[in-house]
């Protein structure tokens, strides 16, 4: 049975990348992937819990280089969310940062792959002095297109209203291919949201692609055409997924996923004529 990842770490060159849990989600699989059927999921029981729900990790990445500390997507936050597709259980990130000996004040950059509630949960916290920023010394970065989509009054701000308000006076807008720190570059990966982005972490000839929500589950390795119901542009998301799978097929390339169970890090390999996920 699948389990959410609590902590996982790898090193390329002199760069350490750590995934730290904020919690987990349990999601009804067929509604999450409308092109799938309950029968399809008989082949993927290993990804489900005892009640037949898809187990998803929720957390954040910390990229530590000789020059900077970058945190990617600060979790779901100190709350539990129940919604039609399932439930999210958060609240562990700050404790896990402490266990990993990472001081929030030491974080130089917080980068958002996109603005969905499970990726922006630990921006601020309530203290005796009111609402304060969790990462007080960090630059807050997101792609221009992702931030400006909320200028449209028809775009829902549900469940991210507080995050948008907290970021309003702090956000810095970046672009595709922009280097945000030595060895760390933005890569546009639209579809899940219009301004969704991944990060390319390069050290020598090795690289890690922090994918955000380009892919939500291992099932999409076998079925990239299974768009997630949360993808705002399903066709674009499918095209982006296939493009990123080609990137991951290149040598010395590792994926860092947001929601995979058991292992968030892995490689795409060809085995028996098929593309396979090889967990690290």
Structure, explained:
The chain is of the alpha+beta class and 280 residues long. The chain has a single domain (7-279), classed as Metallo-beta-lactamase, Chain A. The protein is 15% helix and 35% strand. The chain has 6 helices and 18 strands. The relative contact order is 0.16.
Search tags:
alpha+beta, 9-stranded mixed beta sheet, Metallo-beta-lactamase, Chain A, 280 residues, zinc, RibonucZ/Hydroxyglut_hydro, 15% helix, 7-stranded mixed beta sheet, single chain, MBL_superfamily_lactonases
Quantity of strands, as a count: 18
Structural class: alpha+beta
**Total of domains:** 1
CATH topology: Metallo-beta-lactamase, Chain A
Could you tell me the mean pLDDT?
A: 97
Multimeric state: single chain
CATH homologous superfamily placement:
Ribonuclease Z/Hydroxyacylglutathione hydrolase-like
CATH class: Alpha Beta
Report the biggest beta sheet as strand number plus sense, adding barrel if it closes.
9 strands, mixed
How much β-strand is present in the residues?
Answer: 35-45%
What overall form do the CA principal axes indicate?
A: globular
Q: Which regions contain 5 or more consecutive residues with pLDDT less than 50?
A: none
Distance between the termini: 18 Å
What would CATH call the architecture?
4-Layer Sandwich
Helix-residue proportion: 10-25%
């Amino acid at each position: 049975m699948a389990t959410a990842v609590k902590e996982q770490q790898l090193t390329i060159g002199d760069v350490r990348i750590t995934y730290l849990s904020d919690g987990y989600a349990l999601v009804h699989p067929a509604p999450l992937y409308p092109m799938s059927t309950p029968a399809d999921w008989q082949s993927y029981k290993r990804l489900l819990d005892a009640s037949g729900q898809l187990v998803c990790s929720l957390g954040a990445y910390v990229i530590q280089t000789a020059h900077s500390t970058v945190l990617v997507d600060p979790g779901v936050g100190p709350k539990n969310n129940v919604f039609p597709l399932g439930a999210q259980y958060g609240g562990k990130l700050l404790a896990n940062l402490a266990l990993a000996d990472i001081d929030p004040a030491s974080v130089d950059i917080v980068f958002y792959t996109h603005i969905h509630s499970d990726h922006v949960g630990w921006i601020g916290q309530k203290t005796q002095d009111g609402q304060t920023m969790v990462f007080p010394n960090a630059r807050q970065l997101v792609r221009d297109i992702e931030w400006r989509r909320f200028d449209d009054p028809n775009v829902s701000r549900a469940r991210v209203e507080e995050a948008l308000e907290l970021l309003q006076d702090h956000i810095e807008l970046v672009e595709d291919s922009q280097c945000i720190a030595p060895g760390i570059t933005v890569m546009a990966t639209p579809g899940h949201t219009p301004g969704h982005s991944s990060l390319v972490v390069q050290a020598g000839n090795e690289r890690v692609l922090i994918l955000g929500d380009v892919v939500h589950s291992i099932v999409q390795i076998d079925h990239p055409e299974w768009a997630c119901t949360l993808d705002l542009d399903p066709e674009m998301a499918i095209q982006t997924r296939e493009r990123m799978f080609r990137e991951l097929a290149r040598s010395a390339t590792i994926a860092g996923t947001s929601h995979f169970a058991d292992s968030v890090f892995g490689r795409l390999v060809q085995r028996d004529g098929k593309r396979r996920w090889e967990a690290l």
